[in-house]
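Tokens for chain A. Residues wanted.
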């Protein structure tokens, strides 16, 4: 590609001065999501476990994290790998014991890490005692779930589900239960019946689950599937639930068995969800107050509108989620996105969030392809540079810190229910197994993840030369770049407190971050496939002639500490850079 000097196509400015002062532990937090099943297996059964995590906590600390959230580790038949819980207060035996979890909490705290559990309130497993008692019509549990007789089809005379609602995992969201002779609702898998949040006993039982873990020293909760907590009530005119309309343009989702085929006006993001989040916040705030503890945080998972995400923070009267996961970039950016798209999503959140809250940025998780696969391996560092240098809270999915790519999982090896509900020709479109393959620790058997002959998912990628140990040993690596970034983010005033001033051109985004103390920094992400030459003095108000590289993408060809020309900085395609403005000598 020909290099070109960029005339400014577009300069966009966003100024957001963050409030200064003492920060609570989570406010500028660096959060790390561990998928326990794939992180580290300590007992050789091919499945990651709590002791495995405990053994690797020093690593988590070393890469600069201060909050760790674990995907579910509770007792579960594993129909949705722990997101189908049969006892909220017991640890799944293949992950360890309650004592192991307590030891993990202790170790985390001794390292200054805060440990966060996954709270799955929308549904239980069908093997949960509550559901079994509900099936049996036990009076207290009868209305713990959503039950309905179904309706009689006028033409066939046959009984059919009460509405056309579709499950996230495809097909009807209603399942017939022989024993109770009714249908129950499951917005996810058949083995994940939805709890009934219109029943105050359900609300209180779930609050008690939070209190149970708070009493054991847990520092907060990532709350699963919030938009699904409520559905429309029965329509008195028909005696059943209202059908959802088919989407206007079915070409984007032609299969009527797919969740995306319907417009979810009756089953998703109902206004009732907010009060439930606000009262969970009350539970954790009360706990903090009464027990004089560190702040217990809530991180909420909601793929919903931007307005709803802002409302998740609170409504001006009630506080809500500390960290309503910001999925805008994860949902909207892909390897065709322009630099303006990147800039838009930064400013969209910063400029519109309510006063007194913190921005957060999430680029990956266990439900989405890994960054290096989604944006291309050559952009792996660029994406981490971007995430770690934005104002507020960063959330990293385990593996992204060293550029891990999705693993290949054949149809025969697939275990994700979303894949298994499809068929050999379409499963890859749905499967979440590729982003869940085991962590690559070293070049020994199974990448040091497990000594078992067979692991629960295949070790998906070649690890002989590319693994954590090798990246520590190398002069430079994705991991080393990541560590430089997290350190910078924690200690440099420009990143802890600095404002954000951006400029965008064809393929590139540059932003200056500057605080009242410390050195200003400039971040450049050249997302595009052309080399660009940038004049920072033009872009950022004569920022300085003296710039040095703090870190940059592995393939940049620049050394840390190297001086660069502020008036003609060459940014290579797919590269990210963090530059420091040196004080004038
Ligand atoms: C959330 C989880 C996902 C799970 C679903 C049902 O979206 O992240 O993995 O399948 O909820 O609990």
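Reply:
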């Amino acid at each position: 590609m020909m290099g070109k000097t960029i005339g400014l196509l577009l300069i966009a400015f966003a100024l957001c001065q963050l409030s200064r002062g003492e920060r609570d532990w989570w406010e500028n937090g660096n959060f790390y999501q561990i998928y326990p099943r794939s992180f580290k297996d300590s007992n050789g059964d091919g499945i990651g476990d709590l002791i495995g995590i405990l053994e690797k906590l020093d690593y988590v600390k070393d890469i600069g994290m201060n909050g760790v959230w674990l995907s579910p580790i509770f007792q579960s038949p594993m129909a949705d790998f722990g997101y189908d819980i049969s006892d909220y207060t017991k640890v799944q035996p293949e992950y360890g014991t309650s004592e192991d979890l307590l030891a993990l909490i202790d170790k985390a705290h001794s390292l200054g890490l805060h440990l966060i559990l996954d709270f799955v309130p929308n549904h239980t497993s069908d093997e949960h005692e509550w559901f079994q008692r509900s099936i049996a019509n036990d009076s207290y549990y009868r209305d713990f779930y959503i039950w309905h007789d179904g309706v009689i089809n006028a033409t066939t005379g046959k009984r059919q589900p009460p509405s056309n609602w579709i499950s996230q995992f495809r097909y009807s969201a209603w399942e017939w239960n022989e024993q109770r002779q009714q249908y129950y609702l499951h917005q996810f898998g058949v083995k994940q019946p939805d709890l009934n949040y219109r029943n105050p006993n359900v609300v209180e039982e779930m609050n008690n689950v939070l209190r149970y873990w708070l009493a054991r020293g847990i520092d907060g909760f990532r709350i699963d599937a919030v938009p699904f907590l409520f559905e429309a009530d029965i329509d008195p005119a028909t005696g059943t639930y209202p059908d959802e309309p088919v989407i206007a343009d079915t070409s984007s989702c032609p299969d009527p068995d797919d969740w995306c085929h319907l417009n979810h006006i009756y089953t998703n993001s109902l206004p009732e969800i907010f009060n439930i989040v606000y009262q969970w916040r009350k539970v954790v705030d009360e706990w903090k107050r009464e027990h004089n503890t560190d702040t217990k945080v809530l991180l909420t998972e909601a793929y919903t509108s931007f307005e709803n995400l802002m409302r998740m923070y609170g409504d001006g009267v009630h506080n809500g989620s500390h960290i309503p996961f910001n999925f805008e970039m994860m949902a909207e950016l892909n390897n065709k996105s322009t630099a303006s798209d990147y800039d838009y999503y930064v400013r969209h959140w910063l400029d519109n969030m309510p006063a007194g809250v913190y921005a957060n940025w999430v680029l990956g998780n266990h439900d989405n392809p890994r960054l290096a696969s989604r944006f291309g391996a050559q952009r792996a560092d660029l994406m981490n540079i971007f995430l770690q240098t934005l104002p507020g809270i960063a959330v990293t999915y385990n593996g992204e810190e060293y550029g891990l790519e999705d693993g290949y999982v054949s149809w025969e090896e697939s275990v994700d229910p979303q894949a298994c509900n499809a068929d050999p020709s379409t499963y890859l479109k749905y499967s979440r197994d590729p982003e869940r393959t085991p962590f690559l620790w070293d070049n020994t058997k199974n990448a040091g993840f497990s000594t078992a002959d067979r692991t629960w998912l295949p070790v998906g990628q070649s690890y002989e030369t590319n693994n954590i140990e090798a990246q520590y040993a190398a002069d430079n690596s994705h991991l080393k770049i990541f560590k430089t970034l997290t350190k910078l983010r924690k200690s440099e005033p420009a990143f802890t407190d600095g404002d954000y001033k951006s400029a965008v051109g064809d393929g590139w985004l540059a932003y200056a971050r500057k605080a009242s103390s410390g050195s200003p920094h400039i971040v450049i992400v050249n997302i595009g496939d052309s080399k660009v030459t940038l004049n920072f003095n033009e872009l950022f108000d004569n920022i300085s002639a003296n710039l040095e590289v703090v870190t940059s993408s592995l393939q940049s060809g620049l050394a840390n500490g190297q001086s660069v020309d502020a008036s003609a900085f060459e940014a290579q395609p797919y590269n990210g850079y963090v530059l420091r403005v040196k004080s004038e000598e």
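The chain has a mean pLDDT of 95. The pocket of alpha-D-glucopyranose is lined by residues 80, 83, 120, 188, 224-225, 301, 366-367 (CB under 6 Å).
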